[in-house]
Design goal:
- The protein is mostly helical and about 140 residues long.
- About 20% of the residues are buried.
- The chain is built from six helices and two strands.
- The chain has a two-stranded antiparallel ribbon.
C-alpha cells in the first residue's frame, strides 16, 4: 500500500484543529499552502522523507491550481461573510472544504511519481518552510 493514500490525508485533517491558527497565519502572511504544511508535518511524524526539491515543485504545482480555483472562491467567501445568512456562509465553507480535498487529490497525484524514503532527520517541514525563509523555530506549535 502506498504511503500517499487517503488515510494520510485523514491524519492531516485530524491534526488541523491543533495547528489551525499557525496554518492560517502562515497561509495568509507568507503564502504557504495549508495542505502541504500539514503533509510535511505528518510525514515528519511518520519519519518519511521527500527529496528537498520536491517541496518547491509541489508548492509551485499546487499554488498554480489554487490560484485558479481555490483562492478566488476563498476571497469571495470572505467578502460574502457579512452579506449572507449564516446557513449560506456555512455552505460556502463546505464548498471550500471540498475544494481543499480536491487539492489533496491533486497533491496525491503529484506524489505518485515520487519515491519516499525512511528518514529519521524529519526535514520535510523545515524544507517546506525554508522556501519562504521561515525558520521552524519561529513557530513552536510546529515542533512535533
Amino acid at each position: 500500500m502506498s504511503v500517499f493514500n487517503p488515510a494520510l490525508w485523514e491524519e492531516c485533517e485530524s491534526i488541523y484543529p491543533t495547528l489551525e491558527q499557525v496554518c492560517l497565519q502562515l497561509q495568509d502572511q507568507y503564502g504557504l499552502i495549508a495542505n502541504l504544511l500539514l503533509l510535511a508535518f505528518v510525514l515528519d511524524q511518520k519519519q518519511i522523507g521527500l527529496p528537498h526539491d520536491t517541496w518547491q515543485e509541489l508548492h509551485k504545482q499546487v499554488d498554480g491550481w489554487q490560484s485558479r480555483v481555490l483562492t478566488p472562491f476563498r476571497r469571495l467567501r470572505k467578502l460574502s461573510k457579512s452579506n449572507v445568512a449564516a446557513t449560506e456562509y456555512q455552505q460556502m465553507l463546505d464548498v471550500e472544504l471540498m475544494l481543499e480535498r480536491k487539492g489533496q487529490q491533486f497533491v496525491s497525484h503529484q506524489l505518485e511519481a515520487i519515491s519516499p524514503e525512511i528518514s529519521e532527520d524529519n526535514c520535510n517541514l523545515s524544507d517546506y518552510l525554508s522556501l519562504f525563509n521561515i525558520d521552524q523555530q519561529q513557530f513552536p506549535q510546529l515542533q512535533a
